[in-house]
Design goal:
With 335 residues, this protein is mainly alpha-helical. Helices cover 73% and strands 2% of the residues.
């Protein structure tokens, strides 16, 4: 989500999600400033004014797909359990990505494989913890708590005083959400969501490292395969032969399509035309999208207090992203 957080400022992770595939898109300041399209059918001012509507729409469509896929996963849990749903999602996404990307297995160093294995295990942990959370607390609140992980990473990475404001806003949102102790929420679900946020922060770091070591989306496909293999025993123990039910397999594949394959494709297309900081700000809206999906699919209505808490966390996320963007912005060229 926080594109400006990649260790190398020239690399930007496309997104997190709870289990959403993330790739890294390499951008070059010099290339972007010197390379111009040889021909374009639109005038420069109209392209600058309206050209971003396309990629913005792609990102928002990806976010809607992710969160409605998460809502569908919640409805699938009575059939296969939380661990079973995660297993179906990871296995289906891994199969699709391996077939589409056909990653090269030879020619990688031990450090390359170590990075992709840790990335895959992080992905598995993030998925497992998040789905344990949404099995216990509303989807919108789970995503709001999970966002705190990347937000904390952004605040610590920038080391600027203004980030104390964003941290305070996020803390106020959490206090408001907890209502003085999270008495209205399952404490285990809250713990799972916060742990998923910590894994999300680690996921961002290893996404960037994997993107530097593997071309295109090869590292993502291999990491997804690692995640699927790591989670498969847990899913078998938890769900058993329920994983072999044709209806369950079909619904799990739909979850993988909505929450992994489709949003990854949309975001990859969007990032070719959309600046990474703008992308990261759009990703900050995910708690609101998740709350909307929870309302329409799961009938999980939010109180005014919970809605205000989500708004505070979103504001803190956007502020942290903008602060980080200003910090890594390249200097203006000399006249």
């Amino acid at each position: 989500m926080y594109a400006a957080l990649a260790t190398d400022p020239q690399e930007a992770p496309s997104r997190r999600p709870p289990g959403h595939p993330v790739t890294t898109v390499r951008t070059s300041t010099s290339a972007s400033s010197t390379s111009k399209p040889t021909a374009t059918p639109t005038a420069p001012d109209s392209h600058g004014r309206f050209g971003s509507l396309g990629p913005v729409g792609l990102v928002l469509a990806g976010g809607i797909s992710v969160q409605f896929g998460g809502a569908l996963a919640v409805t699938l849990m009575p059939r296969a359990g939380a661990l079973g749903v995660v297993t179906l999602r990871l296995v289906a996404a891994a199969v699709v990505l391996l077939v589409v990307c056909r990653p090269r297995l030879r020619g990688h160093s031990r450090a390359d494989w170590g990075t992709v294995v840790v990335f895959g295990l992080t992905m598995a942990g993030m998925n497992g913890l998040f789905y344990q959370a949404v099995a216990r607390i509303p989807l919108g609140l789970a995503v709001t708590l999970e966002v705190l992980g990347p937000l904390a990473l952004s605040v610590f990475a920038s080391r600027r005083a203004v980030n104390a404001l964003w941290a305070a806003l996020a803390l106020a949102g959490v206090v408001l959400l907890g209502g003085g102790g999270f008495s209205g929420l399952d404490p285990l679900g809250v713990g799972f969501a916060l742990a998923a946020g910590a894994m999300w922060a680690a996921y961002i770091i290893f996404s960037a490292r994997t993107g530097r070591r593997f071309p295109q989306a090869d590292g993502l496909a291999l990491a997804m395969a690692v995640a699927a293999l790591a989670f498969l025993p847990l899913g078998i123990v938890d769900a058993g032969d329920r994983l072999l039910n044709p209806t369950t397999i079909a619904l799990g594949s739909a979850v993988a399509l909505l929450s992994s394959v489709l949003p990854y494709t949309l975001e990859l297309l969007a990032l070719r035309r959309l600046p990474a900081p703008t992308f990261a700000i759009l990703m900050s809206l995910e708690p609101a999208i998740a709350a909307t999906a929870g309302f329409f699919v799961l009938h999980q209505a939010l109180s005014l207090t919970e809605a205000a808490a989500i708004a505070l966390v979103i504001a803190a996320s956007i502020g942290a992203v903008r602060t980080q963007t200003r910090r890594v912005a390249p200097p203006a060229p000399e006249a």
